Amino acid sequence: MTSPKKILETATSQKRTVLSEYESKLILSAYQIPVTREFLVNTESELFRATNEIGYPLVLKGCSEDIFHKTEQNLVRVDIRNDDEAGIAFKDIMAVLNRGFSAVLVQELVKGQRELVMGMTRDRQFGASVMFGLGGIFTEILEDVAFRLAPLDKRDALEMMEEIRGRRILENIRGLGAADLDQLGEILIQVGRIGIEHDIIKEIDINPVIISEGKGIAADALIVLEPSPIES
Amino acid sequence: MKKFFYPSSIAVFGVADSPGNLARNIVSNCREMGFKGEIFPVGRSHGSVAGRKIITDTDALPAGIELAVILVPAAYVAETLDICGRKGISHAIISTAGFREYSGKENRFEKDVLAAVKHHGIRLIGPNCIGVICTNSGLCTPFNPLRPKRFKKGRISLVTQSGGLTVQAAHLYSEEHVGFSKVISIGNKLDLNEIDYLKYLMDDEDTEQIHLHLESIEDGRKLIDLARKTEKPIVFFKSNVSDTSAKIAKSHTAALLNDDRIVTGAFRQAGIIRVRSIHEMTVCAKALQLPPLSGDRLAVISLSGGFSVILGDACDEYGFECPSLPRELLDKIESFRRGGVIRMSNPMDFGDVHSIEGLAFAVEHCLKLDHIDGMVLALFYDPGIAKLLGQGSDNTQQLLDFLDRTMNACNKPIALSFLSERQYIEAYKKISPFPVFNDPVESVQGLRTNRNYWKAR
Questions:
Q1: Does A168 lie in the same domain as A84?
Q2: Taking the CB of residue B292, how many other CB atoms lie within 10 A of it?
Q3: Which residue of B has its CA nearest to A117?
Q4: Same domain flag for A84 and A118
Q5: Backbone torsions φ then ψ of B382, nearest 5 degrees
Q6: H or E stretch at B119
Q7: d(CA B240, CA B257)
Q8: Interface of A with B (CB under 8 A)
Q9: C-alpha count within 13 angstroms, C-beta hemisphere, residue B179
Q10: pLDDT at B246 over 50
């Protein structure tokens, strides 16, 4: 597996300030943060090898370091149920992408009705700070989030989950079962660790973190890097 | 640092014997507040202020002066610091404005000041500030005419970036009878900043609570690390927190970060109590002077049915519960009733008990209960009622002393407020040996602060 250091070095050598979803999740995985099972494919044969490996239903996403808001650019196909649908989705996405580093990400469809957001950013005064809140479209609509300074301890992580107005989303509501607060807290702690250990990382967005059978799993991720110093 | 607050003698620069001169007020304020050290007014023209001759030849200043307070035009501040340096004065408060807050960070006057300070090894408060009010030493350097005799000595110290807030806080802390040890107006923070003041106050014997009001934080990390180390409560009024999130942020996380959110999170991590007004600072000051509240269970006694209900709502809102009280105890309390028309419960409507013995009995026995962590007491009270309760004599002082003793014996807080005319509330605040809140709901907010503070330790 490619180490976070290696991924970051490659990106900076290419003068990029954004990691692709795939690269971002490799870094999360290196910190034991659960992510969706996924493969990056360039050709149809790779595509079907991946669909076979993961099994339907699936999500196909255009994957490139210069795409932020994939949904808005019509680069996401969810709930792909068979080879036909997969083939069509692949062609559609490739037609839009058509760029140098681009490829299609074939991803397991994680089932879960509850979406959270977790992230890291650097404050001018306080340094690396970790965020927790309601995910998906509610992140922007409700702005129901809490911050703590990294590094986080267990108590910080639990307190920030308790702090949001929508905290009941983590409880056993509508028979969904209570979320595993320890596991979610561990992800927050690890997000903070990434921020502490890699100064080059400016921002991390994991949105959504889907609660599936009580556990959080990163379904989408974005890592933004500091611009490299201007060469003299 | 100590010389900024307890100097043996001071020199005030910029004094003139004319009614419009501002620096002369520094001399008279110190005099009136009872500053014991020598004060040397320094100015350009002969004359005298507050019974002291203005020194026009700085060579005539004696050696051994510990603090300079400087209120001369910005262009002459560096020159004045040179005089201080030559005279061995190593601490200076620069009240003068007209530096970076007026002409930006790149300005000649500031450069000259920094050069002089560096050359002579002088430490600075300011510029653009009103310096220090210290009730322990009587030092009172604001240049507006004050009535410092009214300032109440206490064990709270406030660091603030605003001169206006300095004076207002000094008044408010005094009027609310929480008192203060030091109020420090820190101005532009050209030399010393909040980290230095915080460090000093953490070790200062006269300071029990540290209050801060800042518009900008120089080093958030350092501040949080320090705050985590102190045993003293820190109450923080961070102003200037409107949305500053970087518009260029690429992620949701960065776009959602603003001063307000990060301050909330960081302060909670460090156990800092956050407030949003000076008034709230006084409420916290009172709350933290009470014994620690170690749980959520309150006994609520009010001499009004309506306020019992209001207090029940407030308890619910701030996460408190009012557990039911033992029947035997309620029976005993009910035996003090006059008309026998109100049932006792928790919250307790005491409107039917017209005896000070009954009140004392209820307070003591409710507070002693194992399943009660603290008490809210809202007394419908004035001199007339006092006489009614005391069978003709006003026993208010004895009642307050009894409450104080009971509270300390149980080591559980009583949050006291009076439902009365303002003049009587003020009078009771003055004679009470422990804090009196301004109204019943505020007293519950105070208990919330107290509980949350101790819970976070």
A1: no
A2: 16
A3: B253
A4: no
A5: -165, 180
A6: helix B108-120
A7: 15
A8: 18, 68, 117, 119-121, 123, 125-127, 129, 131, 133, 139-140, 143, 145-149, 156, 159-160, 163, 202-205, 207, 222, 224
A9: 17
A10: no
From A108, A131, A164, the end of a domain falls on A108
- Does A97 fall in a domain? yes
**Per-residue pLDDT tens digits for B71-91:** 999 999 999 999 999 999 999
Spans in chain A with pLDDT lower than 70? 1, 65-72, 98-101, 229-232
Is A231 part of any domain? Answer: no
pLDDT of residue A68: 60
- The answer to whether the Cβ–Cβ distance between B253 and A119 falls below 8 Å is yes
Which residues in chain B are closer than 8 Å to A137, comparing Cβ atoms? Answer: none
What is the ipTM metric for this complex? 0.85
Task: Classify B42 as helix, strand or coil.
Answer: strand
Contact residues, chain B, for A144 at CB < 8 Å? none
Indicate if A162 and A189 belong to the same structural domain. yes
Tell me how many domains chain A contains. 2
Q: Which domains does chain B have, with CATH numbers?
A: 1-129 (3.40.50.720), 151-289 (3.40.50.261), 291-456 (3.40.50.261)
Print the domain residue range for A68.
4-108
B251 touching chain A per CB within 8 A: yes
Q: Name the DSSP class of B191.
A: S
Q: Which chain A residue has its CA at the smallest distance from B218's CA?
A: A125
| pTM of the shown model | 0.90
Residues A217 and A119 grouped into a single domain: yes
A122 and A103 together in one domain: no
Pair B163, B130: CB distance under 8 Å: yes
| B120-154 confidence digits (pLDDT tens) | 999 999 999 999 999 999 999 999 999 999 999 99
Indicate whether A232 belongs to any domain.
Answer: no
pLDDT value at residue A231 = 46
**Token pair for residue A89?**
């989705």
By three-state DSSP, how is residue A67 classified? Answer: coil
CATH number at residue A48: 3.30.1490.20
In B, minimum Cα distance to A144 occurs at B256
Q: What is the CA radius of gyration of chain B?
A: 26
Cβ distance of A224 and B254 shorter than 8 Å: yes
Residues A15, A99 within the same domain: yes
Residue A29 lies in a domain: yes
For chain B, what is the mean pLDDT?
92
> How far apart (Å, rounded) are the C-alpha atoms in residues B452 and B268?
10
Task: Give the confidence band of B218 by pLDDT, cuts at 50, 70, 90.
Answer: confident
